[in-house]
Amino acid sequence: MSGALSPTTGSPARPAGAEAWMRFAVCQDFPALPWLADRDQATDTDRTWMTGVCRACGVIEACSAFVTTERITGGFWAGEFRDQPDVPDVPDVPDVSDVAGRAQPGVQEPVAS
Asked: What is the pLDDT of residues 51-65, one digit of tens each?
């Protein structure tokens, strides 16, 4: 699929290695949608429209095969975002491998009765 506008022509840009099927992709009729944006840059309305366009597209299988083969990791292709959702930074976690089997801090050991 495509969706970004070419800076020189104003027409939808095609990625390197574009396949012949791309000229039949319905998304090309909707160049204002953020096809190549990351998921956090698209509104809920954008996502709804893009999902509907992909579902109505006759080349969605070819699109899916293309993004898998090309290992595309960004944008909205074949009905879904290809970027990974943002994951919050995880604070440094101490290595606890040397304390396996020991009581955890703040956890009380069972009391024998």
From this structure: 999 999 999 999 999
